[in-house]
Amino acid sequence: MAFTITVNGRKRTIEAQADTPLLWVLRDELDLKGTKFGCGMSFCGACTVHLDGVPTRSCITPVSRVGSASVVTIEGVGDSQVGKRVKEAWLALDVMQCGYCQSGQVMAATALLARNPRPTDRDIDEAMSGNLCRCATYTRIRAAIKQAADLPTDDTREV
Amino acid sequence: MASVNAFEPAAAAPLSRRAFLTASLAAGGGLLLTLNLPRADAGEPVAAAPEAGAELNPFISIAPDGIVTIVAKNPEIGQGMKTTLPMLIAEELDADWPQVRIEQALLNPIYGMQFAGGSMATPLNWEPMRRVGAAGRQMLILAAAQTWEVPAAECDASQGIVRHGASGRTLSYGALAARAAALPAPDLQSVTLKDPKDYRIIGKFTGGVDSAHVLEGQPLFGIDTVLPGMAYATYQKGPVFGSRVVSANIAAMKAMPGVRDAFIIHGSDPKAVFDLGLVDGVAIVADTWWQTQKALEKLRVVWDRSSLSGQSTAQFERQAEHLSRQPPQSIVRRDGDVEEALSHADKVLEAAYAYPFLAHVDLEPQNCTAHYKRDGSIEIWAPTQLPGAGRALVASTLGVDESKVTVHMTRVGGGFGRRLKNDFMVEAAMISKMAGRPVKLLWNRRQDIQHDAYRPAGFHYFKAGLTADGRLGAFRDHFATFGQGREVASSADLPRSHFPAGFVPNLLFAQSLIELGVPTGPLRNPGGNALAFAFESFIDELAHAAGRDPLDFRLDLYGPPRVIPMPAPMGRPHPPFDTSRAHGVLELVAEKSGWRKRQELPRGSGMGLAFYYSHYGYFAEVVKASVAPDGTPKIHKVWAAGDVGRQIINPAGAYNQAQGGILDGLGAALHQAITIEGGRVVQENFNTFGLLRMSEAPPVEVHFRVTDNPPTGLGEPPLPPVLPALCNALFAATGRRIRRLPIDPRELRAA
Lengths: 159, 751
Known about the structure:
The complex is a heterodimer. By secondary structure, chain A is α+β, with helices and mostly antiparallel strands. Chain A has helices spanning 22-29, 81-92, 102-115, 121-128, 138-148, and strands spanning 2-7, 10-15, 48-51, 54-57, 70-72.
């Protein structure tokens, strides 16, 4: 079937089976390789994209359910002020190790800061705990979110 | 760990012999590395891409506009070597880092050994890469001196420019490159290296060279590879290890939407089950990967009844318990007379420790893109830690010469030791050959978890004796581990030199083998990731039994400053164990964590300490933890002190590695176990095999103690001590001793 979806501000028409996850449409039909496959069952968050600003697991979202929602991926998220700041913080603090989960992390962090510009540590825990990092770069992810929010980057959690 | 041979340069027919790296054991026991650069009269054309400019040597090209292209020789699996190794070259070249571009090498003997494993990139390359850079600098200075007709000794270079001091004349590297490239390459052993105080790049916080590209969504990883005319493939192997395909509904598969081809592949030989070579399975090739997965749901395979189908975790545990009551099958090491010493000990402690099998779960599932071409050559794009071994496996399995196999090293979405095996590579190559087209093979998560080379489980039956003055007088470990026949399974051995061997007068390391039909292999810090938990927890038990502070008990055990010879990881030459470096990090972590004041902590929380020496690195760690009423551990903070020598090459990567390795270890302690039932792995995804999450990740404070020793790697050494440090902290908090991983909160629940 043919589907027309809006990705990073552009209308795109693709042919796919209705149950094809958005992830594979993005990666293999639209050649947007930044969104990653990690588990296929929404457990890891590597495939996180925004649907109307809401962080969404593209690996379990059938393309037929996207409808008129605005899809934003790692390739387009830097067009927003928040997304740009998040990416800059990620690079300034050298967050990534292998980097495979990081587009999903950036998408989750951008969605957090877009609705909550000054998150607490607890807010960060809640927003980010569905995004697994096998290299466990959580220390720097936390610091980069704070840096993007203009908060002190020190880890001030009570120990 | 993988065999030593696996880390030798591939013996393929070289594309060029313009440089080669050899490692050998120096007379003094140190590691001697020699990289030989080509001479200008070697008669071979330069091979760098024209836009890269003039090639000074296989690692360095300089364009007329001054852009310096440096080749990164090793695979990038997340330890930052694509950044670090070029930093070493750029430093001694005196390049201006913003003017440097990095190019990933192909697999080619001219670059020497190309692999990611064993935390070896820093110790193996620290000196040779700097010499490569210094050779380039010398050639540029000589080219300037010849241009100006002055002695080279009157010229100096800095940040991409050569200066003649007396006249003040300058020439840029870009302007000099063509002339420099025509000069003979100097003998690398003759070049002068900088005084470290003059470093401008080494030691500076330097971001990963690919990081911005990753955040732009550029196709850098293996999974992102696209070839013209490519199809997608899935490969289903039997869930029971060693299964052979009897039949499959191939016709039905071929009728599924988008499916181009489907076929049975028979594996190469029974050994392939343990070596992770090509084993039996069914390949489905389709227009999209999603179509391969839809077809997979309908795949019906008749597997033969594998002889390995009877094994289970429960049975392994019964066997271990049984073996613990029998005399050991073999002796690993015997010092003094343990039984005699135990019989006279003031206090005797016995404890049984156990840890489970673990999977690697690289976040990028195993994949490979392969093109078997009509002329019999094969081109491969793979996220692999050990490309040379992969090429050899493809060549031998498909019956082609290694010179016909080209391997492109993509960025790797996590290694952790899993990608030292190249089963995905040989599968993709075979599927491409049989399908007659380029294919991208991608495993799904279930296939990835259920077809791994697992960190082996293990069972330690300890008995130790304390003397009247509270010292360790006797130590015995009967290790029930795994093997095939009389051979210990991969990564399931107990090294003869393992602590406390050499530090206790009476010691017995003995072992008995449980027959295993599950493939095993190295996981980040093989051996140490398991042994540290068992040994360093039991040492803590002994310290408490002796009524000593666990820090003082350890400091006494290591004893006065001295060096003790050590066998190496992977059989390589190894610096000796230096007890003063152990003392150094133990005292540093105690100071930073407030260890001596831990009695002031509120009731219900506690601190635990552990130390581990591995892969050349010395790490001591303290965990502060408490326990919720339901038994869930809460980890408040981790302090780490590490000693990896005189130079932290890139602080950006170094602290990240240490923090990540420590959190990785906490995830394993809290969440991870692979269980076997009916000869197959039970777990299928991250819901049953967990990783640490953001909400569980405590602050990790890392300190490096700089000592005058050669710089070494950080991928592995920070991990092991955190598991026992956590368990020792939970003991301090609750009085309950964790002797089995993963931690079961029920054992910590308030009575």
